[in-house]
Write a structure and sequence with these properties.
Blueprint (H helix, E strand, L loop, with lengths): L36 H17 L2 H14 L5 H22 L3
Helix pairs in contact: 1-3, 2-3
Length: 99
Amino acid sequence: MSTAPEHPHSWTPPSHRPRSRNCGPHGPPSHWTLWPPSTQRFLRQWALQIAIERHPDLAARLRHLEARAAHVTDPEDGRMIAAEIGRILDKAAAEAGYR
């Protein structure tokens, strides 16, 4: 007896579907490249956000830096804030499999 669906468009219960990889150390699933660029961009941004939110202290630090950046007047402070935000985003991108 075959486990293949009788019809190519028949419904398969979630418990019998193959699990797809999420973003992680191996990067995004290969089928993401089939989606339009705007969807790919959204998924990349979403993956970065999830990678950041997995670390509450890091997420809080990012929010604090973003709030400071909104009111900074000294260019040197702005560069320091931007550099730290960049490091946080780089770390998140590596965790999500984009670096």
